[in-house]
Amino acid sequence: MATTLKRQLNESEKEIVLRRFGRKCFATGHEISENESVHFDHIKAFSADGASDIGNIAPMCAEHNLQKGTLPLGDFRIKLRLAAFFQRGRALTLRHELEYLKEEGIISSFGESVYHKISEGNEIELEYCNKKETYRLYTCPVTKWKYFYAILPVNVLNSDDGAEGKTGLQPRDLIQEKVFELYRHLQYNTVLHPSIARLCQHKILIFDGQHKIASLLWSERKDFELKIYIEPDPDKLGNTVIFAHERFAQTKFYSQIMVDNLARIFDRQFEEYKNREDGEPKTESGFIAFLTQTKQMSKGDVNKRFLSYLVHSTLDESKNKIVRLVSRGNRSTKETPLTLDMLNKSLFANFLYREPTGDDLTDVKQLRHKEIENLIRLCNILDEEILHHWDAKKTNQDSVQNQLSRMFQSKSIMAWSDLLKDAILIKLDIVDRDEQARIFYRELSDKDFEKIRLAVQRLIDWNVWKSPNESPIDRMLANNKERVKTFFRDNGLTVSFLAGGRE
């Protein structure tokens, strides 16, 4: 009979869990030392129908238990494993993931050969992995290509990404966040559409739906639903794939992350909008109008969700170094001194253009993606110049930690962000009022960012940050933003100083 967890585990129950797993952290499998406390948590969350007995409990080290936040333990372990995989490099595809999973012993093989024979009765017989299966065969009425539907094991799958000198039809790389979110979604929801592949030279090559398969593999799924074309014309099929993505889905591959974020925040509403065949370019402003006119959503709700899209795009933990310091809740902590509300009222308020634009989302000159990249680069400069010193274990008796605490208090960052924006406008020579509202909505060069870094360095070098404890700045930072900004200017932290003038 299962032991129901309506209370803290007692010592005998803890021993049962430790006998099952050993004194190892479930997140990574590393040993938990004898002088370190063992934490216990649910592998599968109650909210996801996780069992409320000790069979659903595993040990964790204190560090990983803190890091996982609100994620179920099983999901957190997968998140860490995904991070380890994506650290292998950039431009990773499904093939790279299959190679990684084979090396880790999670799958035994992939990309094995498949042999087929077509009968006169509209059937196809496949021979693979020492077995034979027969499937019904269909014919496309337009191209006359033959295709069939099948559930096939991972052992015969590979990515259609042009490896081994072949022409590849899959131009997109895997996106870490998308793989993880799909992994979580597909644990509790069905797969609506099969992935699409071609049978070419005895290989099953996936060219559409690779994220779906990549995410399911982390759930230890071994068999996958597929629609498979038999030896289609690769040039014609390749053009069809690109045309479908660019024209009908209104999604160019270079800006896929931004469009994915729109879809993630707005779900089916964005899918419905981007697939409308109305002859109009697909834009942010067009999408907002579509929502307010057809979905009976209030303007306030639409604007709130649109801002979430911009913020979500900026807080990409694979690119933005300060994300590790952003609290998941509404309050800052010693480990996470920044909050989303704080960033919304400071850096995001000054460097994100919050109005939906009329720029075509498929235009190669579309600048929203550049704006997000520029803001992430500014965040990374702040991390490289000062924030990387943040240490939750240190107190304000440490001079650097004291400076950081002062700089990144709520009213402080709100005040100096205003000044920093005006200084950057001067350094980038942006004088037009409309352009000033879109300070980062443009292509910026490395030389431009050298100027921005100098302004950040001037901000950090302001001598008042380094004042002894209990100095006037400590009392002042409890006031509202305008009073703090006035204190800054009165004590030498001015736009002119940040732009290169004297203090």
Describe the structure in brief.
The protein is α+β, with helices and mostly antiparallel strands and 503 residues long. The protein is 42% helix and 12% strand. The protein is built from 21 helices and eleven strands.
Describe this protein's structure.
The structure is a single chain. The protein has about 500 residues and is of the alpha+beta class. The protein folds into three domains: about 10-85, DNA Binding (I), subunit A (Orthogonal Bundle), CATH 1.10.30; about 90-245, Conserved hypothetical protein from pyrococcus furiosus pfu- 392566-001, ParB domain; about 320-355 and about 365-500, no CATH class. The protein is about 40% helix and about 10% strand. The protein has helices spanning about 10-20, 60-65, 75-85, 95-105, 175-185, 210-215, 235-250, 255-265, 270-275, 285-295, 300-315, 340-345, 345-350, 370-385, 400-405, 410-425, 435, 445-460, 470-475, 480-490, 495-500, and strands at about 40, 55-60, 115-120, 125-130, 130-135, 140, 145-155, 155-160, 195-200, 205-210, 225-230. A six-stranded mixed sheet has the order 6-7-11-9-10-8. A hairpin with a 2-residue loop joins strand 4 (about 125-130) and strand 5. Helix 5 (about 175-185) crosses helix 6, helix 16 (about 410-425) packs across helix 18 and helix 16 (about 410-425) crosses helix 20 (about 480-490). The protein is globular, with a radius of gyration of 27 Å. The relative contact order is 0.06. Residues about 1-5 and about 245-255 have low confidence and may be disordered.
